[in-house]
């Protein structure tokens, strides 16, 4: 019964259209080195540095059948030792500052950081709160910001691919 | 000349192993109605991993740095004994099925030790669970070997293949079928597939094999991942070629070898398809239900031996 | 050969003398060790000569002990093999002991007594293998038991040791009683105690008498070897003794039980009905499985190793049992295979168990604790001990290309050959034995991952472990010798198996199989059932181990390495409290085998007096049910104590009552004498 439903549904993956790139801000350009190394196979470790989980829900849509990040060779891993890229969300709260640093330290080089969401860029609605340290860029070096509250899965995917150099970089 | 072919066979198996794993992953993606990565994705991953730096824990010892090589070498050594393409192998007398089992246990032993080395709780948990599953799967493997050896009159792999080729009726005997079922369940357990262990899980508390390698990165991780896919291919090839050996070349003519390659690929595709469907259909078992599953496989193996013997 | 024998005798004697005279000083301890090494070496040479030349060595003193037929000594191939085993085990242990016994200088134990008893222990054990009549055998057996009792009681200051000594002496004498009965029955038909006469007249005994002799000998020798349910003294006595003595007791003395059993069952009685082999096989399987199951739950390192000795004796008995069964059905090559596997395992166990106990002793020496839960991180502080212990652990887990794999392979092959037995009911039991042997093997591997991993890896769990120091040179030398033996026996079985075949030739009618199971560097079983070569496997593994890193280096791949903290999900700092414990490691297996263990759990949580939301302390106790102690020994001991208490009433302490007893008994005797 399950198999018949699978067959009836067919492939639902949507192709990625690269025109909505206005939410992507590139901080550091991607060298050919990184593109060569990580272009085809990317392992991502997602770090929630104090977010409201809105961005997490959008990110979890990435591995689903509609957006399917795996077709670009992207897969999520549990340990930063296995990861090439950190996908950071949320304003960095005081409690998560050291864990975020440790996660970055645990990741082997060459590595990238993509910060997702307005909170990651400039603390969003939590700006100025006593519990918040600052933007992700204040704690670890960021390569690409994907702004939005929360950004759509397609935009996050484009941000990741831009960081890896698979999409042409704007600005 | 034969030895050159043997080495070529090993290189072929080593090269094919990531493709087998990638193929199963691709099929699972398609069964989840998504496009998925192409079947040759694991090659990109291996190349990438070999290019990354290795981060080593301060608490780890020399064992941590040596174990990936030991695991890789022991699995590679097994490929010299498995009849992927032709039988009997020139190295057939060096090790029989029992030697294969214990060589694989050598890899598991060191991997489990290394899970304990960095002093993390997840690593210890992975080691503990891995050794539990490995220990409980041992009797089934031994009995499956017994049943095969009964039929073929030898525990050496080459001889088992040639005997079954010469006696086709034996392949559909109840002993053979039951032993296949038992060994299939054990293969799932030993290579960390569902329903025993989810290879794609991110939840540490559900991991068995992944938990032991959480600390590895770079070249070490590449070697371990490659050994894992090699082990998967070894088990699938054993299931294919010991029980359904048609296609395995018995002489070294180019035609026979080409047929052997095609036959092996066909059998691997079939088995891979079956495993992908099984993994999509079935949920992961709770850890303490796994001994029940392995107990079922033990009973199947016992029945296999008894029926093999009684129907001789 | 006579010179070798005299050398052995004198060396041990001088060693004992040196101990009594100067045992406490450093050179005195080295003299003791030297005496033991020379004596064991002479014994090893004597045994090797007998095996190589095939000429037995005899020595007969009819004037000594005239009542029992004199002191008769004869070393044939079987005894020579066990003498070689003694030598292989004793030389490293004695060297190790030279350094280890330095710890007793503080007066905890009597060094003169320790040194003297050590040498006498080795001497009496060697003479057991040489004994050629009943009285000599039993005398030397008792000497071996008594000297080892004194060795066990070395640290008599501890309650646990005294308890262990009591159990040991009680059980060994119970065994002696059974042996006496067995030999008396056996000698009853022959009229004399000489083994040659016993062998000749064994066939003329009634089958009932033969069965009785077999069972009594099995139980008597088995209690020394450590079969289940007579194993309860092992986990108490072996940990209590000093480590080099434990290595000898576990590696060598237990094998004297195997030797005696083989001598009686195979040599003197020449085999018997199939149920003999079946009984041995069944008890072997039970001992192997229960031994490893109890070992898994132990976190006292030496008790764990003691339970593993029970397991390995079980494996040896599996080999002997299959051998006896094949012997009964006339399948001689297969019978020889079974016995060869068992004898190989005897030698292997002596090496790897000796190595493991010496390693455990080093750890105990450095950390002053046997509890695994207080160790950790020792691989960095004691690298050599860790390496040797790892070799021992890999060997006992039967990992190729070390020696445990070879003997287990041989035993597996002999079990697989069981399909040739013409009785279907018996054959159906063989797969069960195969399965359980495989399970034992897997569980042993799991247990040693735990033992090595928790003891040596990760972070130290106590200040003693954090400040552990490497062992002195003599201790490392002893361990290194045994590690080399483990590797050598694993890589060159093609040299050992023919020798074992020659040893078995002629015993109980077994053929000479010296050329049957080997072919160049390959091992093979009859009718080419199985073939393998650990030598080539080892070569291949070494080659690949050199090839793979070289290829990766040539490809100029990223070789950068960076040290960092262990990944702990971003936590700050790492302590020893965060790592896995031995109890936790074995917990899944405890749950799986809960029916056998019947674990009892006790959890006490103390809340803060002011608030129920804060916990002050948590106490967790988990115990497994010791079946044999509870179901078998406790009722027996309770009833024995009860009977003894009743009898005690007769000894009221009054002189008049005792005089009355004498008078009554005298009158009764006179009446009885008048009657007869």
Structure in words:
The complex is a heterotrimer of chains A (171), B (312) and C (676). Chain A is α/β, with parallel strands linked by helices and 171 residues long. Chain A contains six helices and eight strands; from the N terminus they run H-E-H-E-H-E-E-E-H-E-H-E-E-H. In chain A, the strands form two sheets. Chain A has a six-stranded mixed β-sheet, sandwiched between helices. A two-stranded antiparallel sheet of chain A has the order 5-7. In chain A, helix 3 (54-60) links the parallel strand 2 (42-48) and strand 3 (74-76). Chain A is globular. Chain B has one domain (2-136, 193-283). In chain B, helix 3 runs antiparallel to helix 4 (97-116) and helix 7 (174-190) packs antiparallel against helix 11 (290-310). The longest helix of chain B has 32 residues, at 121-152. Chain B starts with a helix and ends with a helix. Chain C is mostly helical. Among the domains of chain C are: 294-551, no CATH class; 627-675. Chain C is globular, with a radius of gyration of 27 Å. Chains B and C meet through strand 1, helix 3, helix 4, helix 5 and helix 9 of B and helix 16, helix 17, strand 5, helix 21 and strand 6 of C. Strand 1 of chain B pairs parallel with strand 6 of chain C, so a sheet runs across the interface.
Features of the shown structure:
heterotrimer; B: about 300 residues; mainly alpha; C: about 675 residues; 3-stranded antiparallel beta sheet; two-stranded antiparallel ribbon; 25 helices; globular
Summarize the structure.
With 171 residues, chain A is of the alpha/beta class.
Q: How would the blueprint of this fold be written?
A:
The complex is a heterotrimer of chains A (171), B (312) and C (676).
Chain A: H1 2-9, E1 24-26, H2 32-38, E2 42-48, H3 54-60, E3 74-76, E4 85-89, E5 92-93, H4 94-106, E6 112-116, H5 118-122, E7 132-134, E8 144-146, H6 153-164
Parallel strand pairs in A: 2-3, 2-4, 4-6, 6-8
Antiparallel strand pairs in A: 1-8, 5-7
Chain B: H1 2-31, H2 41-50, E1 54-57, H3 62-79, H4 97-116, H5 121-152, H6 157-166, H7 174-190, H8 209-212, H9 218-243, H10 254-281, H11 290-310
Helix pairs in contact in B: 1-9, 1-10, 2-9, 3-4, 3-9, 4-5, 5-6, 5-7, 5-11, 7-9, 7-11, 9-10
Chain C: H1 2-22, H2 26-53, E1 57-61, E2 71-75, H3 77-100, H4 111-130, H5 134-152, H6 159-188, H7 195-201, H8 207-225, H9 234-240, H10 243-268, H11 274-296, H12 301-328, H13 332-367, H14 378-381, H15 383-396, H16 403-416, H17 424-456, H18 463-466, H19 473-491, H20 493-504, E3 518-519, E4 522-524, E5 531-532, H21 534-554, E6 561-564, H22 582-592, H23 594-597, E7 600-607, E8 615-623, H24 627-648, H25 655-675
Antiparallel strand pairs in C: 1-2, 3-4, 4-5, 7-8
Helix pairs in contact in C: 1-2, 1-4, 2-3, 2-4, 3-4, 3-10, 3-13, 3-19, 4-5, 4-10, 5-6, 5-10, 6-8, 6-9, 8-10, 9-10, 9-12, 10-12, 10-13, 11-12, 11-17, 12-13, 12-16, 12-17, 13-15, 13-16, 13-19, 13-20, 15-17, 15-19, 16-19
């Amino acid at each position: 019964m399950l198999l018949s439903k699978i067959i009836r549904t067919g492939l639902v993956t949507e192709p990625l259209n690269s025109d909505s790139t206005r939410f992507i801000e590139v901080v550091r350009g991607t060298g050919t080195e990184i593109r060569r190394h990580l272009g085809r196979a990317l392992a991502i470790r997602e770090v929630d540095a104090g977010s409201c989980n809105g961005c997490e829900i959008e990110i979890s849509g990435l591995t689903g059948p509609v957006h399917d990040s795996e077709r670009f060779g992207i897969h999520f891993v549990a340990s930063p030792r296995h990861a090439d890229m950190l996908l950071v969300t949320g304003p960095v709260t005081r409690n998560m500052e050291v864990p975020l640093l440790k996660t970055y330290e645990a990741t082997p080089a060459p590595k990238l950081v993509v910060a997702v969401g307005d909170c990651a860029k400039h603390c969003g609605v939590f700006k100025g709160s006593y519990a918040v340290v600052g933007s992700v860029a204040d704690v670890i070096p960021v390569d690409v910001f994907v702004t939005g509250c929360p950004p759509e899965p397609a935009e996050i995917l484009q941000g990741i691919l831009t960081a890896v150099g698979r999409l042409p970089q704007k600005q | 000349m034969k030895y050159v072919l043997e080495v070529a066979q090993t290189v072929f198996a080593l090269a094919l192993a990531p493709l087998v794993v990638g193929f199963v992953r691709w099929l699972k993606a398609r069964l989840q109605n998504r496009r998925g990565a192409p079947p040759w994705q694991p090659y990109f991953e291996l190349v990438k991993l070999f290019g990354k730096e290795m981060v080593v824990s301060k608490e780890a010892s020399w064992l941590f740095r040596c174990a990936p090589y030991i695991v890789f070498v022991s699995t590679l050594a097994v490929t010299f004994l498995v009849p992927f393409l032709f039988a009997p192998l020139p190295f057939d007398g060096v090790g029989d099925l029992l030697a294969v089992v214990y060589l694989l246990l050598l890899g598991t032993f060191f991997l489990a030790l290394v899970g304990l080395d960095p002093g993390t709780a997840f690593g210890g948990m992975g080691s503990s669970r891995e050794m539990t599953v490995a220990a409980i799967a041992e009797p089934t493997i031994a009995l499956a070997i017994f049943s095969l050896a009964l039929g073929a009159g030898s525990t050496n792999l080459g001889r088992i293949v040639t005997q079954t080729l010469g006696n086709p009726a034996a392949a559909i005997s109840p002993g053979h079928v039951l032993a296949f079922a038992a060994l299939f369940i054990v293969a799932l357990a030993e290579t960390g597939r569902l329903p025993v262990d989810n290879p794609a899980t991110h939840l540490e508390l559900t991991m068995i094999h992944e938990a032991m390698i959480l600390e590895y990165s770079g070249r070490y991780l590449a070697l371990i991942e490659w050994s894992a896919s090699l082990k998967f291919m070894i088990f699938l090839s054993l299931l294919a070629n010991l029980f359904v050996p048609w296609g395995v070349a018995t002489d070294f003519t180019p035609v026979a070898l080409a047929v052997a390659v095609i036959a092996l690929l066909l059998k691997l595709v079939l088995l891979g398809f079956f495993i992908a469907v099984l993994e999509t259909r079935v949920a992961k078992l709770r850890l303490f239900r796994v001994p029940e599953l392995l107990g079922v496989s033990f009973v199947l193996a016992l029945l296999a031996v008894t029926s093999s013997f009684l129907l001789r | 050969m006579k010179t070798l024998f005299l050398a052995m005798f004198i060396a041990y004697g001088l060693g004992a003398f040196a101990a009594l005279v100067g045992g406490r000083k450093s050179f005195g301890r080295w003299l003791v060790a030297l005496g033991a090494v020379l004596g064991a070496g002479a014994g090893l040479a004597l045994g090797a000569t007998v095996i190589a030349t095939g000429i037995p060595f005899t020595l007969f003193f009819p004037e000594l002990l005239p009542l029992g037929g004199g002191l008769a000594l004869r070393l044939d191939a079987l005894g020579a093999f066990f003498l070689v085993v003694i030598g292989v085990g004793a030389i490293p242990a004695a060297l190790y002991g030279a350094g280890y016994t330095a710890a007793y200088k503080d007066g905890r134990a009597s060094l003169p007594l320790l040194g003297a008893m050590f040498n006498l222990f080795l001497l009496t054990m060697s003479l057991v293998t040489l004994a050629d009549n009943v009285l000599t055998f039993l005398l030397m057996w008792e000497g071996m038991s008594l000297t080892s009792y004194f060795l066990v009681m070395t640290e008599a200051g501890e309650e646990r040791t005294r308890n262990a000594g009591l159990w040991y002496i009680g059980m060994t004498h119970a065994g002696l009683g059974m042996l006496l009965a067995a030999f008396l029955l056996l000698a009853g038909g022959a009229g004399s105690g000489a083994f040659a006469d016993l062998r000749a007249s064994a066939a003329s005994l009634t089958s009932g008498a033969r069965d009785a002799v077999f069972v009594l000998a099995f139980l008597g020798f088995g209690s020394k070897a450590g079969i289940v349910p007579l194993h309860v003294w092992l986990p108490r006595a072996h940990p209590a003794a000093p480590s080099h003595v434990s290595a000898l007791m576990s590696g060598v003395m237990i094998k004297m039980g195997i030797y005696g059993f083989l001598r009686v069952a195979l040599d003197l009685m020449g085999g018997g009905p199939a149920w003999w082999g079946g009984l041995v096989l069944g008890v072997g399987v039970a001992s192997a499985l229960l031994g490893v199951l109890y070992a898994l739950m132990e976190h006292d390192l030496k008790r764990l190793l003691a339970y593993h000795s029970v397991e390995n004796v079980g494996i040896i008995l599996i080999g002997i049992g299959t051998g006896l069964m094949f012997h009964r059905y006339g399948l001689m090559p297969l019978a020889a295979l079974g016995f060869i596997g068992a004898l190989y395992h005897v030698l292997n166990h002596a090496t790897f168990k000796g190595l493991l106990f010496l390693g455990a002793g080093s750890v105990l020496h450095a950390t002053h604790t046997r509890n695994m839960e207080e160790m950790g991180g020792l691989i960095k502080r004691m690298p050599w001990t860790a390496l040797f212990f790892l070799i021992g652990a890999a060997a006992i887990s039967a990992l190729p290309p070390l020696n445990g794999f070879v003997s287990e392979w041989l035993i597996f092959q002999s079990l697989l050959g069981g399909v040739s037995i013409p009785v279907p009911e018996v054959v159906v039991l063989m797969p069960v034995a195969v399965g359980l042997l495989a399970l034992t093997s897997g569980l042993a591997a799991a247990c040693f991952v735990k033992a090595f991993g928790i003891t040596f890896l990760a972070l130290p769990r106590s200040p003693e472990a954090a400040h552990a120091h490497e062992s002195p040179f003599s201790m490392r030398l002893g361990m290194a010798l045994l590690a080399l033996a483990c590797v050598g026996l694993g890589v060159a079985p093609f040299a050992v198996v023919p020798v074992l075949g020659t040893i078995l030739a002629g015993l109980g009618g077994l053929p000479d199989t010296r050329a049957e199971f080997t072919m160049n560097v390959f091992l093979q079983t009859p009718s080419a059932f199985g073939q393998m070569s650990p030598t080539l496997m080892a070569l291949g593994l070494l080659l690949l181990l050199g090839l793979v890193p070289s290829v990766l280096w040539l490809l100029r791949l990223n070789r950068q390495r960076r040290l960092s903290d262990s990944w702990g999900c971003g936590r700050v700092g790492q302590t020893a409290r965060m790592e896995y414990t031995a109890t936790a490691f074995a917990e899944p297996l405890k749950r799986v085998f809960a029916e056998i263990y019947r674990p009892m759990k006790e959890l006490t949580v103390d809340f803060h007096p002011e608030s129920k939301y804060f916990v002050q302390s948590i106490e967790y106790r988990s115990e497994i049910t010791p079946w044999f102690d509870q179901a078998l020994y406790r009722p027996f001991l309770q009833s024995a104590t009860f009977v003894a208490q009743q009898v005690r009433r007769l000894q009221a302490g009054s002189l008049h009552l005792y005089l009355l007893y004498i008078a009554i008994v005298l009158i009764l005797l006179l009446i009885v004498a008048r009657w007869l």
